[in-house]
Specification:
Elements (H helix, E strand, L loop, with lengths): L10 E5 L9 H18 L3 E4 L13 H11 L4 E8 L5 H14 L4 E6 L6 H8 L9 H11 L21 E5 L2 H10 L3 E3 L8 H11 L11 E9 L3 H20 L18 H10 L3 E4 L1 H15 L3 E5 L5 H16 L2
Parallel strand pairs: 1-2, 1-9, 2-3, 3-4, 4-5, 5-6, 6-7, 7-8, 7-9
Helix pairs in contact: 1-2, 1-11, 3-5, 6-7, 8-9, 10-11
InterPro entries: Bact_Lucif_Oxidored, CmoO-like, Luciferase-like_dom, Luciferase-like_sf
Protein name: Luciferase family oxidoreductase group 1
GO molecular function, one term: oxidoreductase activity, acting on paired donors, with incorporation or reduction of molecular oxygen
Length: 336
């Protein structure tokens, strides 16, 4: 399932389909498609889309529909979820949706699964119309979903059509040690969300690798880590472009709902000292600068963690500069 002998570290993209100031949701989705086409040409391995609800600044609530659009608009890049928040859905519905995607685009669909709702609890109840206990059923839901995607002889009375026999690759997403334990127990690839929750990264990867049990899906541990990237022609330009990302995270901390903001020359006066510390803590794994600077920053990170694949998110206001940021990232990784 995984190419673990590749000489060059695979690089992938996570897109939240953030709506920039002055942009409509339709324009944000069009930008998503254009970015997917661009990174496919650059040789990126995957293009994943998140799931968020009741968030007016993100257009990624109907994740499977966006994935279908990316698949229709590209030729070879793998497209998937980063992730589907399983507590919001029944495993059968997810199996039907991703089984349909795999049927239309064989070999190109990924199914990343998370246990968080991707929204507030009131919205979570509106989505699933049940209690918060669905999050605790996450391990059982993953196994149920796996079974729906297996050949018919492995299933019970209820089947996912299409979906049966598609065996869509499943990835466990997480930001804690509990998700690492689950991925290890099920023998599935593990994707850590270091782009916004870096605190338990090293501990989680150690647990995943030490507890990993080989499965029919994966013989050896496979680790992907998602980080923030702001690539530019110079370090100085990257520092300015990166202010949009800082304001994005400031939005999260304050609970405000502002669209992605244009960059500013300085963040002075835009946040308090505690807010600055919180943003820097969330975005600890941000690689920013020129190609040479990003390569220099990434080398010890990749060496220490021994990751199998790097995934990146880039909150840059200008679409052309965002595309260039991913170009610079790919060039930096390829020269390591």
């Amino acid at each position: 399932m995984m190419d673990q002998n590749s000489k060059t570290l695979p690089v992938s993209v996570l897109d939240l389909v953030a709506i920039s100031q002055g942009q409509t949701a339709k324009e944000a989705i069009d930008s998503m498609i254009s970015l997917a086409q661009h990174v496919e040409q650059l040789g990126f391995r995957r293009f994943w889309l998140s799931e968020h609800h009741n968030t007016p600044t993100l257009a990624s609530s109907a994740t499977s529909i966006l994935i279908s659009k990316v698949l229709d608009s590209t030729d070879s890049i793998e497209a998937g979820s980063g992730g589907i928040m399983l507590p919001n859905h029944t495993p059968l519905v997810v199996a039907e949706q991703f089984g349909t995607l795999e049927t239309m685009h064989p070999g190109r669909v990924n199914l990343g699964l998370g246990r968080a709702p991707g929204t507030d609890m009131q919205t979570a109840r509106a989505l699933r119309r049940t209690s918060q206990e669905t999050a605790y059923a996450f391990p059982q839901d993953v196994v149920e979903l796996q079974n729906y995607l297996k050949p018919l002889e492995h299933q019970g009375m209820v089947h996912a059509y299409p979906g049966v026999g598609t065996e869509v690759p499943i990835f466990i997403l997480g930001s804690s040690t509990s998700s690492a334990e689950l991925a290890a127990r099920l023998g599935l690839p593990y994707v850590f969300a270091a782009h916004f929750a870096p605190q338990q990264l090293k501990q989680a990867l150690q647990i995943y690798r030490s507890q990993f049990q080989p499965s029919e899906y994966l013989a050896n541990p496979y680790v992907m880590v998602c980080v923030n990237v702001v690539g530019a022609e110079t370090d100085e330009e990257a520092a300015v472009l990166g202010t949009s990302s800082k304001m994005f995270y400031l939005n999260v901390i304050r609970g405000t709902k502002n669209p992605l903001q244009p960059p500013v020359e300085t963040m002075d006066g835009r946040w308090t000292f505690p807010e600055e510390n919180m943003v820097r803590g969330m975005a600890q794994y941000t690689f920013s600068g020129s190609k040479e600077t990003i390569a220099r920053q990434l080398a010890p990170f990749i060496e220490e963690l021994q990751i199998d694949e790097l995934m990146a998110v880039s909150y840059i206001y200008d679409q052309d500069k965002r595309k260039r940021s991913f170009e610079i990232l790919k060039e930096a990784v390829d020269q390591l």
